[in-house]
Amino acid sequence: MGFIIIMLLALCAGLLGGMGMGGGTILIPALTIFLGIEQHAAQAANLLAFLPMALISLKIHSGNGLIKARGALWIIIPAVALSLGGAFLAAYTPSALLRRMFGAFLIALAIKQAFDVYNSIKEQNAQKKGG
C-alpha cells in the first residue's frame, strides 16, 4: 500500500511540476504529512527529484530553440551559489522552524496565485468591454 501512495504522490508532484506550479508544493507536504518523513529528508528528496526534471526541461527547451546561451552564466552562477547556500542553511535549521518557513512559503505562493488569477480575469473582462 505504501508503494501505491508514493507513486500517486509522485504522479501528482510530476503533474504540478509539468504545469509550472512546482512539484515540491505537493511532494514535500505529502511526504511529511502522509508518510511521516522528516522535513529535511522531504526537502532533500524534492531537490533530488527536481534535478532530472530540470535536465529534461532544459533539453526540450534547448531543442525547441527557446534558450539563449548569451548571458546564461549571469543566471547560472548566482543560482548555484545561492542554492548551495540555502541547502547548507536548511541543513542546520531546526526541523520545526523549517516546516513553518515552508508553510509560510506555501501561503505566500497561494496568495500570489490568487492575485494572478484575479488580475487575469480582470484583464479578460476589460478586453471584452473594450473590444
Low-confidence stretches: none
| Average pLDDT metric | 82
Q: Which value, in Å, is the CA radius of gyration? A: 18 Å
SSE run: HHHHH
Distance between the termini: 55 Å
Q: State the total count of DSSP E strands.
A: 0
Q: Give the oligomer, counting copies of the same chain as homo and different chains as hetero.
A: single chain
Main beta sheet? none
Q: Total number of helical segments?
A: 5
Beta-strand portion reads under 5%
> Which shape, going by the Cα principal axes?
globular
- Tally of structural domains: 1
**Secondary-structure class:** mainly alpha
Helical proportion?
A: over 70%
Structural notes for this entry:
By secondary structure, the chain is an all-alpha fold. It has one domain. The protein has five helices and no strands. It starts with a helix and ends with a helix. 10% of the residues are buried.
Explain the layout of strands and helices:
Blueprint: H1 2-18, H2 24-33, H3 39-63, H4 73-91, H5 95-130
Features:
0% strand, globular, single chain, 131 residues
What is the structure about, briefly put?
With 131 residues, the protein is mainly alpha-helical. The chain contains five helices and no strands.
